[in-house]
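Entry 12.
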Amino acid sequence: MSMKNILDFDADAPRVAIVGRPNVGKSTLFNRLVGKRLALVDDQPGVTRDRREGRASLFDLDFVAVDTAGFEDGSDESLSGRMRAQTEAAVARATVAMLVYDARAGITPLDEHFAGWLRRRGVPLVLVANKAEGLQAEAGLNEGHALGFGEPVGLSAEHGLGLADLYQALAPHLEPEAAVEAEPDGAGDDAPAEDMEAPEPPPGPLKIAIVGRPNAGKSTLINRLLGEQRLVTGPEAGITRDSITIDWDYDGQPVRLVDTAGLRKRARVTEKLEKLSAADTKLAVDFAEVVVLLLDATQGLESQDLRIADMVLSEGRALIIVLNKWDVAVDQSRLFNGVRKALDDGLSQIKGVPLLTCSGATGKGLETLMQVAFETRTRWSRRVPTSALNRWFEAAIARNPPPAPGGLRIKLRYATQVASRPPTFVVFGNRTDALPASYARFLTNSLAADLDFGGLPIRLSFRGGRNPFNKG
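Predicted 3D structure (C-alpha cells):
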C-alpha cells in the first residue's frame, strides 16, 4: 500500500478500533470488513504488532477499520509495551471500539483485564464473541454477559457469519442521527424500559432471503412479486450464481428481497464457483430477517431441505417454509400433511415453523406469504416486559417444578430477555448446570406456546451464582 493510500482517509470518517487479547481473530475480522486480505492471519498469537487501517464497509455503513495488536502486559519500553501504545492510540481516536474475545475459549482473565482498561477510557464499545460457530461456543458466548457490556455479538469472522448482528450493534454509533428517535410525550424516566410496552417492529425494509435447492422456482417467485422479469429464469437448474438484492415496495412498506443460488448437498459441490455461490447464499441468510425456504411441491421434502432449514434456524433467523409450484402439485392434501409431519419430525427442536403454499407462476398465495413474513418479523423482534415474562416463568415452574437430581433441589429464581432478533433469554438459579436437557426443552416449548414465539428460534441459557446484570 502506498503512503498516499495510507493517509488518504477522510479525517471526519468514523473509526472503529478492533481490540482484544492475542489470537482471538481481530485481523480476520479486519480483513472481512475491508474486503481484502490486508492483515496477516495465522494461528500463532502476536502476528499483528502495528495498528493497521483500511477503508471498511458493512452493508450501508462506511468507516475506517483499525486492526490493533493483542493487548499484553509489559513495561513501556518492551515490545509488548510499544504494541500496547499503538492500541491505546487507536482507541483514543476511535468513534467506537469492538472488544473481541474467543467464544470457544470463553472469558479469560486477560479479557477481563482488557475490559476494565477499556471501561476506564470511556469509549463506546461493542462486545464481539468471535469464533462463535458451532455448539461448543455457546457457553463462551453466554459468558460475555459477565463483562457488563451487554449482549455479545456472536460471529465468525472467518466464515462471514453474524455480520448482520454486528451491523445492528455498530449502526447506532456510526449513524447516531438515524438511530435517535423522539421520545413520546409522557414517557417517564421513572418507568423501567424493560416493563414498557413491547416496541414496534424495527424500522427499515423487511429483509427477506429466498433460499432452497436448485430449480425450486426462487427467481420466478421474485419476478411474480415484482410484476416484472427482473431476474433470469429458465428450466435449467443453477441459473442464479450470486445473491441479487432488490429493493421493493409492498403495499406502501419497504422490502429488500434477496434471490440466492440453489444449495445442493455439500458432497455434490465440487466446483469453486458453486462453493463461492453457496458461501454467498449463507451470507444472504445472515443478513436477512426472514428467510423463505422454497420447496418444489412436485418433488416434496428432501433431506437437503431439512439441512438448509437447520442452517437458517441455527443462525437465529425467522424461517418460513413454502411449497412452490402448488398449481401443478398432485394429491395436495396428502402432500401438505406429509410435509408438515416430516418438518415436525426433522426440526424437532422448533415446533410450528410456518408452512405455506404458493405458485410463483400464477401468483396464488403470494399475498399470504408477504403478510406472514411481516407478522413473523414482528414476533421475531419482540421483547417481553420483564414482569410478564416472570409471571409466565413462575406459572411454568409451578406447573412442572425442576427435578432434584441426587435428591438435591434445583432452584430457578427468575428469567430475563437479554436480546431479540432472535428472542434470547437467560434463567438464573442454583445448580443450573445439573438441569437436564429435557427440562430446558420444556421451558423453551412453554415459552414459545405461551408467549407467541411459536415457530421461531429461541435461545435459552441458564446461569448460576452471581447475576452479571446486577451492577451493585
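Annotation: DSSP finds 14 helices and 15 strands in the chain. The longest helix spans residues 272-287.
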